């Protein structure tokens, strides 16, 4: 009755054209099967498969007919993992403040290590004199240089950093971040504004805790 009062068309899936469901439906789609897969022809098996297949087909046709977009999905499923991924932005999940490690390119590697340890981060953003991002140094970079680079801790960090790293914008969706992680072998991404000023960082280890991954 509530559906009828709102004048919502009802599409009924049933094997019985004279069933109460069929009689109350505006459109009836038959899911009748010659025989169930159950050897006793009792347990619903083939009929349930037919129902699922037709239901999925109808859903996809309606999705295309109504130009259903990711934003529509997010609005209707805000609490689930998919909806959360579609609604969250980088600015909602990025590390800031004391959890954001950053130093200038001329600083020694020792300072980079201290900054990463203090922020409990696996990377540090490297800045030029105007505080714009020029590189990133990760704990992986440090391990790779540890044995082969003499006086590593005293070298300017710019000598071993990765220049022009992949970056994020605060307004990007979390789902876009997941795609970047899938496409590139990185664990840490720096967030910059329009002027390449560092405003945060996103660590892949945070994604499961935020129920994004």
Structure description:
- The protein has 213 residues and is of the alpha/beta class.
- The protein is 38% helix and 17% strand.
- The protein is built from ten helices and nine strands.
- The longest helix has 20 residues, at 46-65.
- The chain is elongated, with a radius of gyration of 28 Å.
Brief overview, please?
The chain is an alpha/beta fold and 213 residues long.
Q: What is the H/E string?
A: HEHEHHHHEHEEHEEHEEH
Shape: elongated
Over all CA atoms, what is the radius of gyration? Answer: 28 Å
Nearest-integer average pLDDT:
89
Oligomer: single chain
* Proportion in β-strands: 15-25%
Secondary-structure class: alpha/beta
Describe the SSE topology.
Blueprint: H1 2-5, E1 11-14, H2 20-24, E2 27-30, H3 46-65, H4 70-76, H5 81-87, H6 90-93, E3 102-104, H7 109-119, E4 123-127, E5 133-138, H8 139-146, E6 162-163, E7 167-168, H9 174-183, E8 188-192, E9 198-203, H10 206-209
Parallel strand pairs: 1-2, 3-4, 7-8
Antiparallel strand pairs: 4-5, 5-6, 8-9
Helix pairs in contact: 4-5
């Amino acid at each position: 009755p509530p559906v009828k009062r709102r004048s919502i068309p009802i599409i009924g899936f049933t094997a019985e054209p004279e069933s109460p469901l069929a009689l109350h439906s505006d459109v009836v789609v038959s899911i009748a099967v010659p025989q169930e897969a159950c050897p006793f022809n009792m347990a619903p098996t083939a009929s349930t498969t037919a129902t699922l297949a037709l239901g999925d087909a109808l859903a996809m046709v309606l999705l295309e007919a109504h130009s259903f977009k990711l934003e529509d999905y997010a609005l209707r499923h805000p609490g689930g993992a998919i909806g959360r991924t579609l609604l969250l932005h980088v600015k909602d999940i990025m590390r800031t403040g004391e959890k954001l490690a950053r130093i200038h390119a001329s600083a020694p590697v020792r300072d980079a290590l201290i900054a990463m340890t203090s922020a409990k981060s696996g990377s540090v953003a490297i800045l030029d004199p105007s505080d714009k991002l020029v590189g990133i140094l990760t704990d992986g970079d440090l391990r790779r240089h540890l044995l082969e680079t003499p006086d590593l801790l005293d070298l300017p960090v710019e000598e071993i950093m990765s220049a022009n790293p992949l970056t994020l914008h605060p307004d990007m969706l979390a789902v876009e971040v997941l795609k970047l992680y899938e496409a590139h072998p990185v664990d840490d991404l720096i967030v910059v504004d329009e002027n390449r000023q560092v405003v945060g960082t996103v660590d892949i280890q945070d994604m499961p805790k935020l129920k994004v991954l």
